[in-house]
């Protein structure tokens, strides 16, 4: 019998835990690869609680339960999760481990799925529990799976080759680089478990996860340049087998744990930031010597080669034309009052699909009107959907997945009739000034993202305001829209990667913002490529940014008087480049609109 209500599901979980002799259980949003986006088969937290955000967790005891989310989801979690069933807890002020240590009785056994949690989390929770006489127990099979009768199956879609023309390097070349690193460090093998790392290393893509073109699989890469791919047999085609070649052995995904347990006496490198606790447990139980170190594919994946760089430019050009057509349509239709958030998102997708080359969205579109725009990670659905009010600010953050690149762009626009308030214009102009300041900055090679973050905030700070998210994240090449290791964010914050040195060839977002709760939100986001700054007289190597995103900015929300001559020059140069890039792809009224938007400020 299907459990239809979240109350029944919570009750069912408690009964299953009691049957297993457990007093509690921790439920994250995660899969066996610690992915940002997970397939429907792994949406256990959503099934149990109703929470639809992309980050959060729950802790369930026999007498109480709690939801844990950060400030991005304060409103959403209360809308979607019953306060009668769950306490609302704020991260990082508390955590599931802290909460359980406070509320579980001494001697309690708390279960966790070691294939959904990182090793760091497991060890920290174990230590916190031990001080309270509580035991952390890895479960044999997830108890939610035991009661989720209509749980979807993991995708069996075929994995496909990603051609060298787009990848810019052969898989053999990449495996050779990893093998050289293994030999240099004295390791026998490394586990590659992050799905985008597997995809990059083998030049392989898939459709198993929404928004990210990856295939559910693991790789064991060896110091002799060979590799073993663990993947469901149904996903392997003759084309993939031929593409992988003789040096890659294809094995059933079910053989992964036995293969780890067979590495007795081997020195195996594993990245604790990308590998679940279950991998460490299996290796240690098999007698391997486990070395915790960075995934050797992460940095070379982040440094885009010339083919990937040009692919991004080409993808951004096509994507920019689609977004421009959408913005013109929006400017005509939204002031009439007949467009809601879902309809706008659907129309934008329609414009992207019209080009015939879109593979997927790169994330769920943030289509945010009025007060919803003040929620940086707002996700529209049937319940939250509202009409876009005339005479208001509308924010749209969206992106596409193309064979040659991954896009991510945010535009904030004024929906007429009438004029935006003086405050809206002033705040948007400060955001714009920060965006320009970061875009124009030159900096020494290996400068960290943390060292640059204040540039995007300085004009907001001078006005007594700020924003609560990072300024920039890495972006993949037909891979994850949020890619490490680099990041532009406040030093010492909650985001990893802030201290990663920036290298030529990395791609990042530049997205300062401002959010007035309940009223409006502003964000301006372009993607940028780290390039040689071309400073003839520099002492040492200096880097700068090449702007990749090509879409007009809304001049209605800009106070020219607040801009310096250099900033006005940036605006005009940028829109000259936008026009040159998009004009050959547009015609008629779309082209006339573009010409108007790209006129000098």
Automatic annotation (TrEMBL):
CDD domains: APP. One of its GO terms (cellular component) is cytoplasm. Residues 9-141 form the Creatinase N-terminal domain. InterPro entries: Creatin/AminoP/Spt16_N, Creatinase/aminopeptidase-like, Creatinase_N, Pept_M24, Pept_M24B, Peptidase_M24_C, X-Pro_aminopeptidase_P. It comes from the Bacteria. Keywords: Aminopeptidase, Hydrolase, Metal-binding, Protease. One of its GO terms (molecular function) is metalloaminopeptidase activity. Residues 312-531 form the Peptidase M24 domain. It holds the Pfam family Creatinase_N. Its EC number is 3.4.11.9. Residues 541-601 form the Peptidase M24 C-terminal domain. Belongs to the peptidase M24B family. This is M24 family metallopeptidase.
């Amino acid at each position: 019998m299907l459990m239809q209500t979240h109350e029944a599901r919570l009750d069912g979980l408690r009964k299953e835990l009691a049957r297993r002799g457990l007093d509690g259980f921790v439920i994250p949003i995660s899969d066996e690869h610690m992915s940002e986006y997970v397939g429907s088969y792994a949406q256990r937290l959503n099934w149990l609680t109703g929470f639809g955000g992309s980050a959060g967790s729950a802790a369930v005891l026999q007498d109480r339960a709690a939801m844990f989310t950060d400030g991005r989801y304060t409103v959403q979690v209360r809308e979607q999760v019953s306060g009668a069933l769950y306490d609302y807890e704020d991260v990082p002020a508390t955590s599931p481990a802290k909460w359980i240590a406070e509320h579980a009785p001494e001697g309690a056994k708390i279960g966790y799925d070691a294939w959904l949690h990182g090793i760091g989390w497991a060890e920290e929770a174990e230590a916190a529990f031990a001080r309270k006489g509580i035991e952390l127990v890895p479960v044999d099979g997830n108890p939610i799976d035991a009661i989720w009768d209509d749980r979807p199956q993991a995708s069996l879609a075929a994995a496909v080759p990603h051609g060298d023309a787009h990848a810019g390097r052969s898989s053999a070349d990449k495996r050779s680089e990893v093998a050289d690193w293994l030999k240099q460090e004295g390791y026998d093998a490394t586990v590659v478990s992050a799905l985008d790392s597997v995809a990059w290393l083998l030049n392989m893509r898939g459709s198993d996860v929404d928004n990210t073109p990856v295939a559910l699989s693991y790789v064991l890469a060896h110091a002799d340049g060979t590799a073993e791919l663990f993947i469901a047999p149904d996903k392997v085609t003759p084309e993939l087998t031929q593409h992988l070649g003789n040096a890659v052995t294809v094995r059933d995904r079910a053989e992964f744990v036995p293969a780890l347990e067979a590495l007795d006496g081997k020195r195996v490198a594993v990245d604790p930031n990308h590998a679940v606790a279950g991998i460490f447990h299996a290796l240690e139980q098999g007698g391997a010597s486990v070395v915790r170190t960075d995934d050797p594919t992460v940095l070379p994946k982040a440094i885009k080669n010339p083919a990937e760089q040009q692919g991004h430019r080409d993808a951004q050009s096509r994507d920019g034309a689609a977004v421009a057509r959408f913005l013109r349509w929006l400017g005509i239709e939204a002031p009439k009052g007949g467009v809601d958030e879902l309809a706008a998102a659907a129309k934008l997708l329609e414009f992207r699909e019209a080009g015939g080359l879109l593979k997927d969205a790169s994330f769920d579109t943030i289509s945010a009107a009025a007060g919803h725009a003040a929620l940086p990670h707002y996700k529209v659905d049937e319940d939250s959907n509202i009409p876009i009010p005339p005479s208001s600010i509308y924010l749209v953050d969206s992106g596409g997945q193309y064979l040659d690149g991954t896009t991510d762009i945010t535009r904030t626009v004024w929906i007429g009739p009438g004029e935006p308030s003086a405050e809206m214009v002033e705040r948007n102009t400060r955001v714009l000034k920060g965006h320009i300041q970061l875009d124009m900055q030159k900096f020494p090679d290996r400068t960290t993202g943390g060292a640059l973050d204040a540039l995007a905030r300085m004009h907001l700070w001078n006005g007594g305001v700020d924003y609560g998210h990072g300024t920039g994240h890495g972006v993949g090449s037909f891979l994850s829209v949020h890619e490490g290791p680099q990041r532009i964010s406040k030093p010492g914050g909650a985001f990893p990667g802030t201290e990663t040195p920036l290298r030529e060839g990395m791609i990042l977002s530049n997205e300062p913002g401002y959010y007035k709760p309940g009223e409006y939100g502003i964000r301006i986001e372009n993607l940028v490529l780290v390039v040689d700054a071309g400073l003839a007289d520099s002492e040492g190597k200096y880097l700068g940014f090449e702007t990749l995103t090509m879409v007009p900015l809304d001049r209605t929300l800009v106070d020219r008087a607040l801009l310096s001559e250099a900033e006005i020059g940036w605006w005009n140069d940028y829109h000259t480049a936008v026009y040159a890039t998009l004009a050959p792809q547009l015609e008629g009224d779309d082209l006339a609109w573009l010409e108007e938007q790209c006129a000098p400020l």
